[in-house]
Design goal:
Number of strands: 0
Radius of gyration: 21 Å
CATH architecture of one domain: Alpha Horseshoe
Number of helices: 18
Shape: globular
Largest sheet: none
CATH superfamily of one domain: Tetratricopeptide repeat domain
CATH topology of one domain: Serine Threonine Protein Phosphatase 5, Tetratricopeptide repeat
Helix content: over 70%
Strand content: under 5%
Distance between the termini: 35 Å
Oligomer: single chain
């Protein structure tokens, strides 16, 4: 019965029906604890499944607790070098990544890849999953040239093992397109985004959150190219999917609000943009916390809105908050941090505060040559 409940929960999760999936996962966990005992590997699997669902819902504290409980059981039963342990560590690393705990995440990713290398029988799909996750982290950190070969290896494995139309292939295509867009290779990026969108619509249905991700990323590419009229309906469709499936207070809904607000800023629709930024900032501060990089992104984009209206005091305040947070979470040399410092300097100059602007120039680090992405391009999602 527990296995049946678990498999049914997986189906509902795939369809984006998260509340129903959680109820089934909880029932499966209860049955396994009662029949098998609290330290059985099947109990660990139920905990792991619940943790994955909590991550999807951005309930990170609860997710980490479930992952740690599952990891403890598996280490006790199988030992610390078992491939199941690596899978548990991978999910924990992805959780740290989402929380902005990048150093902890990278250490775990590297540890997992070393474990896979020591285990000849490791499934290729497990390796691909870790490669893609580490590449995502490198992109966030501006380490684009390190990310590219990892994305390419992961995509090759997925296509080889699962076929060209699997949702995992779509995710790899989407991630690789993000990287190409960061490099300014817009035609190549658009082609990959459209392939990913087609796969997801065919395999997952038109209202799945992964479809919203592809719509969002394609819209962000159009904004990068100045094609605002083409971007708006895609952003609106992505927002509608997320509000329907994930709810109005979900971080992915906040991402759609933020990106649509940035589009309206570019179009001069300042009142509409302000309302959307306020909603996005509220969600991100409440759910992710005031120290999360996504919160910094909304602060930055909100500052751009004030700057566009020549409301320089407000723009300065938001840029300063964003810059402080970006330095703390991404570092002074990250492209997003550099862009925030550059834009803050422009505001200070416009306010006639040239001495303060000069101080910013003095603290500007040399770029590492990893890429030229700006915060405005950070609306793309992994």
């Amino acid at each position: 019965m527990a296995l049946l409940l678990n498999n049914l929960a997986v189906l509902y999760k795939t369809q984006g029906k998260y509340a129903t999936a959680e109820q089934l996962y909880q029932r499966a966990l209860h049955i396994r604890e009662q029949i098998l005992g609290p330290e059985h590997p099947d109990v660990a699997q139920s905990l792991h499944n619940l943790a994955n669902l909590r991550v999807r819902l951005s309930q990170y504290t609860e997710a980490e607790q479930f992952y740690q409980r599952a990891l403890h059981i598996r280490e006790q039963v199988f030992g610390s070098e078992n491939p199941d342990i690596a899978q548990n560590l991978l999910c924990l690393a992805i959780l740290y990544h989402r929380q902005g705990r990048y150093n902890e995440a990278e250490r775990l990713y590297q540890q997992i890849l070393q474990m896979y290398e020591r285990e000849p029988g490791t499934p290729l799909l497990s390796t691909a999953s870790c490669l893609g996750a580490l590449a995502n982290l490198y992109v966030i950190q501006g380490r684009y040239h390190e990310a590219n070969p990892l994305y390419q290896r992961a995509l090759q494995i997925y296509q080889q093992e699962l076929g060209p139309l699997h949702p995992s292939v779509a995710q790899s295509l989407d991630n690789l397109a993000n990287l190409l867009a960061d490099w300014g290779k817009c035609e190549e990026a658009e082609s990959l985004y459209r392939k990913a969108l087609h796969i997801r619509e065919q395999k997952l249905g038109p209202l799945h959150p992964d479809v919203a991700q592809s719509l969002n990323n394609l819209a962000t590419l159009f904004c990068q190219e100045g094609k605002y009229a083409e971007a708006e309906p895609l952003y609106l469709r992505a927002l509608d999917i997320r509000e329907q499936v994930l709810g109005q207070e979900h971080p992915e809904t906040a991402s759609s609000l933020n990106n649509l607000a940035s589009l309206y800023t570019e179009q001069g629709k300042y009142a509409e943009a302000q309302q959307l930024f306020q909603r996005a900032l509220h969600i991100r501060e409440r759910v992710l916390g005031s120290d999360h990089p996504d919160t910094a992104n909304t602060l930055f984009d909100f500052a751009m809105l004030w700057q566009a209206q020549e409301s320089y005091e407000e723009a300065r305040s938001f840029y300063e908050r964003a810059l402080t947070l970006l330095i703390r979470t991404l570092g002074s040399a990250h492209p997003y941090t550099i862009d925030a410092r550059r834009r803050l300097r422009a505001v200070l100059v416009a306010m006639g505060k040239t001495e303060e602007a000069a101080l910013l120039d003095a603290t500007q680090p040399e770029t590492a040559g990893n890429g030229t992405a700006t915060n405005k391009e950070s609306g793309r999602e992994q």
